[in-house]
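Progress against Task 2.4 (sequence-to-structure conversion) is shown through the following example record, which the project officer requested during the mid-term review.
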Amino acid sequence: MSSNRRDFLKKASLLSSVAITLPSINNAAFAAAPAFNMTGYAAPKIDKVRIAVIGLGMRGPGAVDRLSYIEGAEIVALCDKHADRVEKAQKILTNKGLKEAKSYSGENGWQQMLKEVELDLVYICTPWQYHAPMCIAAMKAGAHAASEVPIGLTVKECWEVVRVSEETKKHCMMLENCCYDFFEMLTLNMTRQGLFGELVHAEGAYIHDLLDLNFNKKGYDDMWRLRQNIKMNGNLYPTHGVGPIAQCLNINRGDRMTHLVAMQSADFQMGEKAKELAAKDSFYQEFVGQRYRGNMDTTLIKTEHGKTMMLQHDVTSPRPYSRLHLLSGTKGFAQKYPKEGIAFGHSFIKEDELKGLYDKYTPELIKYIGAQAKEVGGHGGMDFMMDWRLIDCLRNGLPLDQDVYDGASWSVIVPLSCESVAKNSKTVLIPDFTKGAWKTNKPHDLTLNGGGNTGIRPKVSKDQKNQLKID
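Structure tokens generated for the chain above:
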């Protein structure tokens, strides 16, 4: 056998072994250069942002309430499958003296709305499976899209959202509110200022006991979230944990996630819960004998520059809420749960020293509207800061803090973790949605340069009933 033939067979064998771990992606999209790089893109200014909110169940009413406080934001359309929810959301507007929005309902009401109403932003608060299709349709209709997490449930959906955003030059932002929490933003700025040195490892999570809520008839419409815990076996909700640490690690802006490994426990509670409830109520009979995702999923990720990330997901175990948010660098360490702490050696700094860091390194956004955000509400104010910042960027033609590549790369952990778990924790490659642009993309600006001029309407009432208390 000739040496050329041996080299060819060797290369073919290597390619074959790599292909085994590649997720099912659109290879043409993966190989092609970006049609347009959305990182750092400043869309034309929009003085008055005309908004449609789709999905008025768990998250939607809170979004309507928060957006109604932002000057320069006008909610012109409301849509939900259930007409009574639309009527309730209208009262949030009219009770504050604001103009009633156009109402749409039914399974296809959102499609009719996109045809009939001229919109600048479509704000999506529907069940997960609708996020990608609605984002894509909104951008094709000429509007920017903002979606609750995750932005897609399959690798193909994530690629398609990226492709349409690049082609239409419309922003597609995943509404990862945890990136705007106070400690997360403090540690992001401290990371940028080099206080932790070179970050080596980071951890994030979504550990939240939702067992009773997921089985509650009056919780998620048609029990959709419980059904997703049957349909998919992996980390179903990674973005709250990965978003803040990905920003600290400059993912898609100087580094990228290359591959992951996921391991998951068996289910020790959901199946038993279904049996327990079905013994008293026949409604739950269809959920008996189903194969539920395990209690705890642990996903390990490595980056191009050799950093490591750990993500965890558990929504059934009876334990305190935690998103971990842990940063470990060559000079310092930070963790949010169970108690906020920062260390530059073997011991955590004292309370007064931590307060001093807050005073010095809290980003401009929080210093500017943090107190008002707490008044408006929404997970302690981080939801409102996210909404206000989004509208301020659109009004001033500024790049968004989170772009479509962030939404896609953070969300794709859902299907890829499922793939790894299904293959006995096999390594799975993570697509590069930036198609190489991560090498030169710059981190987003933590200042209010060019913006910060969007007003906040006065609070009419301290009644917080429209603000969501849980995810």
